[in-house]
Design a protein that fits this description.
Radius of gyration: 13 Å
Helix content: under 10%
Order of helices and strands: EEEEEEEEEEE
Largest sheet: 7 strands, mixed
Number of helices: 0
Number of strands: 11
Structural class: mainly beta
Oligomer: single chain
Amino acid sequence: QVQLVESGGGLVQPGGSLRLSCAASGFTFSNYGMNWYRQTPGKERELVAGISSAGRSTNYADSVKGRFTISRDNAKNMLYLQLDSLKPEDTAVYYCNARMLRDNFWGQGTQVTVSS
């Protein structure tokens, strides 16, 4: 069955860094565009970053441009998000998402908390 398993979240001080990982299985990872979303209580889930199936193109929310970097390793079925220069407003649950045509798969999320 399809599985997306996020890891790497945690508590970090403002200005710090984290690297989130998403392990994919149960589908042909290299065929899917991949995304990272985040959500805070009471707010809609928002797109943070996306990457094309081959990794040639990426896109970012304005709020994270220049601080976050999305990447993928299709040989390992892995998706990554490097979070640098973290701010308290980056605190959220971060979700891995795989999308192609009518397929739309989600992971269970990993908590990122930015606080001193």
